[in-house]
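To: structure desk
From: M.T.
Subject: fold request, one chain
Message: Could you run this one when you get a chance? Sequence is below, nothing fancy, just the single chain.
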Amino acid sequence: MNYVDGFVAAVPTANREKFQQHAQAMAAVLKENGALAVVECWGDDVPEGKLTSFPMAVQRKDDETVVFSWIAWPSRAVRDEGMKKAMADPRMQPEHSPMPFDGKRVIFGGFQVIVNV
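Reply: Done. Structure tokens follow.
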């Protein structure tokens, strides 16, 4: 695991099952395109902060839950090519699999792994 895409989002709590189904479908596409692992985590103990916090970062509403996710890739090159192919896959298109959350409030980024114990 040399490269990781990380995500934080706010998902309507009522959409937990829809989110899980959506995530499983997207994970299959990502794994077909080179991802080593796709992990989706439903917030259980995600406190509000005073200056910063996950809830503040995604502008979580009272009826939403914070989700923390990551995709592990063997390298950035594999990730770049894999994401390109995955995003072109019809199964990833909103008309086929609409996101059960507000995609405008997702925080994401790519990270080089520097410690993996």
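Reply (cont.): The helical segments are 16-32, 54-57, 76-88. Let me know if you need anything else for the meeting.
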